[in-house]
Amino acid sequence: MRFVPEDGKGETKDYDFTTLPVTRALQEGFARAFAARTGPAAGMRAASSAERAWSLLSSFAEYLSGLLRSPQSAADLSSVQVEGWLQQRSDRVGALKELGDLTRSLRKVPGISAEFAAKMTESHRRPKPKPTTTIYSRDEFRRILTAARFDVRRAAARIRAGRDLLGRWRSGELDPRCDVREWRRGSLLDYVDRHIDLPQVVGQAASGDEALAVAHRLRPDLALLDLQMPEPDGIEVARRLAAELPDCRCVIVTSHGRPGYLKSALAAGVRGFLPKTASSRTLTQVVRKVASGGRHVAPNSRPRRSAPATRR
């Protein structure tokens, strides 16, 4: 097939379609399509355009020859083959433009199916990006970003403090006789580190008032309360959380297993009640149970039933 530039630039060039690694029928079909695009009054006048059309048809023929079931005729051509060819060139700049040029040639191949011809006439332009809607002003976005950075830094500080405490606990530096609270935190951190399916700790408090403020700010799913925390105590905090944040379940730990405390805790809506002497394993099991909607009362916390009175 000979191409003669009509724009007066470039040289006449012959293209040998018998060198394409496809069947004779496809060689002839590609040659006819090339002739339909490069012939007189076909619209393709520059040598560079003809060279690009030839190069793309050659590349497509090379791809077809590598398929397990190579097409034998124009009727066997499909859009899946074109998509596979494009996939191999997806990392090239201008791949979609090359696809458009190739499809303009392929739809002129005699004998192609109507379905394939329709696919080759579809647009291959990238969809235009949808206009974005600005939700926040720049000042609002800056404030949000500042708050987020503060929260991230505070979370990082908590993580570092927790790692330091865990390291001290594992090395034996913490003495439960000197600081029971720190020792138990270290024990919990050790268990959580080994069984990481526990709910996330989002806040801590040293008093009842602080616990209520933290709960209202963070809206936790579960609150682990000390019965004897500074005013108000754990039962009162649980009662107020049940009224003000009903989705927050409460678990109370205590060193007093008197029946009166248990009765008051249950009346306040507490879902878990256990002694501080409970192991870390037991505590984490109770937290899981209550967090998933269950209840737990330590057996030794239940009120004892008095023996029935008998007459002699």
Structure in words:
The chain folds into three domains: 2-120, no CATH class; 134-196; 202-303, 3-Layer(aba) Sandwich (Rossmann fold). It contains eleven helices and six strands. It has helices at 24-38, 47-65, 79-88, 95-106, 114-120, 138-171, 180-194, 208-218, 234-244, 259-267, 280-291, and strands at residues 2-3, 13-14, 222-226, 249-254, 272-275, 296-297. The strands form two sheets. It has a four-stranded parallel β-sheet with strand order 3-4-5-6, with helices on both faces. Strand 3, helix 9 (234-244) and strand 4 form a beta-alpha-beta unit.
Chain-wise SSE layout:
Elements: E1 2-3, E2 13-14, H1 24-38, H2 47-65, H3 79-88, H4 95-106, H5 114-120, H6 138-171, H7 180-194, H8 208-218, E3 222-226, H9 234-244, E4 249-254, H10 259-267, E5 272-275, H11 280-291, E6 296-297
Along the chain, the helix and strand elements come as EEHHHHHHHHEHEHEHE
How many domain units? 3
Q: What fraction, in percent, of the residue positions are helical?
A: 40-55%
The total of helices stands at 11
Computed CA radius of gyration, to the nearest angstrom? 39 Å
Number of E strands: 6
- What's the arrangement of strands in the largest beta sheet? 3-4-5-6
Briefly characterize the structure.
The protein is α/β, with parallel strands linked by helices.
List keywords for this structure.
alpha/beta; Rossmann fold; 3 domains; four-stranded parallel β-sheet; 6 strands; 7% strand; rod-shaped; disordered C terminus
